Amino acid sequence: MPILVMKFGGTSVATLDRIRRAAKRVGREVAAGYDVIVIVSAMSGKTNELVGWVNETSPFYDAREYDAVVSSGEQVTAGLMALTLQEMEIPARSWQGWQVPLKTSSAHGAARIEEIPTDNVMGRFEAGMRVAVVAGFQGISPEGRITTLGRGGSDTTAVAFAAAFGAERCDIYTDVDGVYTTDPRISPKARKLDRISFEEMLELASLGAKVLQTRSVELAMRYNVRLRVLSSFEDNNAEAGTLVCAEEDIVESKVVAGVAYSRDEAKMTLISVADRPGIAAAIFGPLSEAGVNVDMIVQNISEEGRTDLTFSCPVDQVARAQKALQQAKETGDVNFHDLVADTEVAKVSVVGIGMRSHAGVAAKMFKSLKDENVNIKVITTSEIKISVLIDRKYMELAVQALHDAFELEKAA
Amino acid sequence: MPILVMKFGGTSVATLDRIRRAAKRVGREVAAGYDVIVIVSAMSGKTNELVGWVNETSPFYDAREYDAVVSSGEQVTAGLMALTLQEMEIPARSWQGWQVPLKTSSAHGAARIEEIPTDNVMGRFEAGMRVAVVAGFQGISPEGRITTLGRGGSDTTAVAFAAAFGAERCDIYTDVDGVYTTDPRISPKARKLDRISFEEMLELASLGAKVLQTRSVELAMRYNVRLRVLSSFEDNNAEAGTLVCAEEDIVESKVVAGVAYSRDEAKMTLISVADRPGIAAAIFGPLSEAGVNVDMIVQNISEEGRTDLTFSCPVDQVARAQKALQQAKETGDVNFHDLVADTEVAKVSVVGIGMRSHAGVAAKMFKSLKDENVNIKVITTSEIKISVLIDRKYMELAVQALHDAFELEKAA
């Protein structure tokens, strides 16, 4: 029988009633002839409670013990989901990560999936079981200890199972009904996309759209897993949600698929840096060691051997960045005149695979912002994305203006 | 290094603060030179919450899924306890049942321990680890699924580890400070025992003293594990609590060690049963199948081929017993004139290994009850126990009178 993977997030299994509703969706797919692998998260709130206990017990905790404690949330949901399915007379059983076994690296707290042997679960499907309920977010290390995959790791678990079992599709049930052209809370004209390419989804995920974990999209792209995002709170027909798929499965596409934003950015400028080979390493090495996530980097034209260098990072990492750069200056590793921080900026991006073949997207974007008197502070581009840093107070205005300019409210 | 097993029950690990207090006790034993195996229960309330979810999901649940859900409570405590010990700079790590592995039968929900390989944990002790924190109450079946040992199974886990590792002692930390001559809530003269024999403890446990699970005492007796019951809420010196040990380790002992009671009993009498071979099996077979726990059984002298037969059982099983016996009567398996239930009785017992060598214990017990005008309805005796069934309203009176008669307030 064809295999379907269905993943239910924390809000979709928050109570016994919601688990029952999720189980009914599973039952419909079983009735439609699928063998189903269900991946479950912890009941919402549970993981936070467990993480809270660990942090209170030990601020610099042993990640192996953290994983042992935190993985228990998914274990509970998996058992309850299997019991609920059995009550509906659907042959089902639960698997914990170590029982599959979902083999991972030893990087506790952020382990990478290495192998998912399929014989154990497939044997049970062949023996008549219809649903395998698997605790998401967790696996087992080569040392035999429980590992977790990091926040949102249940999405990654789901995609990895879909790839390993050659599933027809991987349905991610969540509390939104799909991927939108932009955040509907900012632009009421935001439109749900029926389809989006892996590449675009990856850019949107990394730009802060919280629908899917970046790693799960990467994995889906690598193994060409058809990924569908849909709501567990609405009745869905076969066309519900958003299908994340390969570019060639998108018949008609617009030049720009969506507008993303990231509100809490900061712009840091090093004034008058000595422009010598190795200077970038001397600056960004210490920042990386200090745990600063540098995003955009721009270097001005050098004059008389000195240059200005600007980068962006999350606003809550500014103090850390300043400390790291002052230390580098004191040890003589970097020489700069001044360090200026602008903590009132936001990033706005347009994303679309159509950009590859269409010129003029950047020009249209810049003109649209100019028409609204929004000043652009930094620009970076990739093959399918243009991002700008602007004053935070103009962020909503810019998102709305770009959404209008690229006519995203209209279907392709 | 000598090994000590320390077990902490649910109230002793109910909060992070209490886990810290328990960890300090462990720290003291480590400082005293022991390698310690800590067995933990779930934080109190957690197991009930999980069991409640399972029951609400599925009244006739799959016991394998029940075990997967319910075992998660101990998993959390084990991780938190290991982290707490690490914070105190004591080398520690957690083990779940399947990691040890604690091998059990496949009787989910009430599995029997079959084997505890020691090489895994011993290897870590040899490498410098000082504390192994083990999730109590759980193991792994031959099929690789999580099993649980039944309520109170963490006591049994602790004793089994003490036996497997040849521990010097197994300390059970609980919310009482030891085993008493009787329930202090009934007799203010109740005295804590410094030592009690396995046999006596076993009788007291099976008679309803809730300090230790019966199976854990059986196991301790079989493997001669020195078992100490003590409070996790008081400062204990080396002589604290009650040591449960072999008879020969008790230097001076009284004839009677304690008075036990069981409040909610019922007395059932089958009037005029045909007295023929196999009649007991015909009566007690159906009762056992109906899940009735028959305790005392008395058969009167037969007259003209008919006899009266009396037995006791928990009062909440009376309806079940009546139904089973009526059915047996209707099918012709049993022939009796009438079935009379007295649901207002209680059982009071005196227990002591000294009875073996001292005559007159029964006579003294009966006289003491007669002096208080307490009528005895049923009597049963074993080598070290005499139990009587009396009207429930006299229960407290009887316990106090017997405690006085055998001078249990005085040390041996």
Which descriptors would you attach to this protein?
six-stranded antiparallel β-sheet, nucleotide-binding (chains A, B), lysine biosynthesis (chains A, B), Asp/Glu/Uridylate_kinase (chains A, B), alpha/beta, 2 domains, 18 strands, homodimer, Carbamate kinase, eight-stranded mixed β-sheet, VC0802-like, 412 residues
In short:
2 copies of one chain form a homodimer. The first copy, chain A, has helices spanning 16-31, 46-57, 63-70, 72-87, 119-126, 153-164, 198-206, 214-223, 279-289, 318-330, 361-371, 395-405, and strands spanning 3-8, 35-40, 92-95, 103-104, 113-115, 131-135, 138-140, 146-148, 169-174, 195-197, 227-231, 242-245, 258-274, 297-299, 306-314, 338-351, 378-382, 385-391. Chain A is of the alpha/beta class and 412 residues long.
Q: What is the assembly state of the chains in this entry?
A: homodimer
CATH uppermost class of the largest domain in chain A: Alpha Beta
By CATH, the architecture of the largest domain in chain A is named 3-Layer(aba) Sandwich
What's the overall geometry of chain A? globular
| Domain unit count of chain A | 2
What is the terminal-to-terminal distance of chain A? 35 Å
Alpha-beta content class of chain A: alpha/beta
Number of strands of chain A: 18
How many helices of chain A does DSSP assign? 12
Return Rg of chain A in Å.
24 Å
Q: What percentage of the residues of chain A does DSSP assign to strands (E)? A: 25-35%
Question: Would you identify the regions of chain A where 5 or more consecutive residues have pLDDT less than 50?
Answer: none
Helix content of chain A: 25-40%
Keywords (chains A, B): Amino-acid biosynthesis, ATP-binding, Kinase, Lysine biosynthesis, Nucleotide-binding, Transferase
Binding site for ATP (chains A, B): 7-10, 174-175, 180, 185, 210-211
Binding site for substrate (chains A, B): 47, 74
Protein name (chains A, B): Aspartokinase
